[in-house]
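Researcher: I'd like a structural prediction for the single chain below. Treat it as a standalone chain; there are no partners to consider.
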Amino acid sequence: MAKSTLSKQKLHSEHALLCLLGQKAQELKLLDPLHKLVKIDQKTLVHTPTEKLTDALLAIACGAEALSQINTVLRADGAVSRAWGRVRCADQSSVQETLSACTATNIDQMQTALAQIYQKLARASNHSYATGPLILDIDLTGLPCSKNYAGASKGYFAKSKKGTTGRQLCRVNASQYDEIVYQKVLPGNASSSDLESLKTVLVATLQMLGLSGEQKGQLLIRLDGGFGTTAIIEYLLAEGYQFIVKLHSASRSKKLGHALKEEAWVCDNNGLRWASLLGDEASNLYATSSSNETITASKLQLIAVRCKREEPDQLKKKVKAKAKSEYVYSVLAVKREVIKSARDLAGAALLEQLAFYDDRATIESASFRGDKQGLKLIKRRKASLYGQEMLILLAQLVHNLVVWARDWLSEEEPRLAELGIKVWIRDLFKMPGRVKFKAGKIVKVQFRRGHQYARRFFEALAHFFVKSEIRLFLDEG
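Model: Treating it as a single chain, here is the predicted structure.
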């Protein structure tokens, strides 16, 4: 009698670590909410719609630049599909059809599924508020695409020529943990200054974190100058959020900065930037009303910031018809529970607020850039708006999975915590090896010694996955 080929199998994989994480995901039943909640109106012939979404998820984790690579990358590596509970992957055309069949209802279902996964595994959802607020960075980034795609329009796209069309991606990042809390695809002409869009994002963020409206004050939101309009600042004050935001109006910032005396400025250690606390008359520019009573923003502090103006060399050689100011001015509006009065922002504490605000740059450098380079976020485009949004949400799950895996494994090897999304997708997930299955479960993985990360982190991986009864080895080659 022939033995079953499925009971025991040894498969070569170019993504052995991703296979191991698939086994961990099955133990945690990580994708169960996706399969239970997302109901795409599409017939099932061989693969269910959510199984095809799983294939798209794995293609992203494998570093595929386009979904068409499902046939060449994922299908060629059967161990990955099997480790994640799939017998084999669907054809790329079938996956594309499933994404195109997504509706607004499916996106809501996917957001609910992600919320369940997030609240179960995310560090941000289990943040200890006794130690301080949860810091959230909110920003937009452009996703250029054809003008014929749904939701595409002309707008601002960094490093793109004038007239470029596309969509905008709004992201809420829990920067203390490098996790993505919430994402939403917006039209290409969407602006940070749109108050209604920000309201929608903040409500969805509370739902993702499992927080009630009364817990808004436990969040500390960092926003760039695009969000620094009077309407948004007054809204955040009225709702009781903690925040720090740069004022949107450059002319107002310049006027407030010019009004300060030279001795009021505090210089940083590098001698490149100065800060000064503005008086109560500036803070009281922002007020809100409740029960027909005007409440001044007594806890809102404005910090003026100036730095030397840098002119390109070619402009320095030209004679300017109108002399410009020696400095560039900006103003930060700060409302934090730890700031009770102007005395809390004296001296070095004032510069600490600047350093704290500077940290919000990580949403662009580590979060957006890491996903664009590592998860190829900007390369995968769908004509369908909801298909594109589903792809974005799948990439969000991959991002968080990488972050969670990094947290788990860095307890065994701290050096793993230093590696970003791009290195994990490009190098760590692509450690080749032979994967042995028994009754559909991984029992043994043999890594190639020639891979530098396999050698460097083997002990940590072996120690972590022994808890899942998986034995790891290095080959002799």
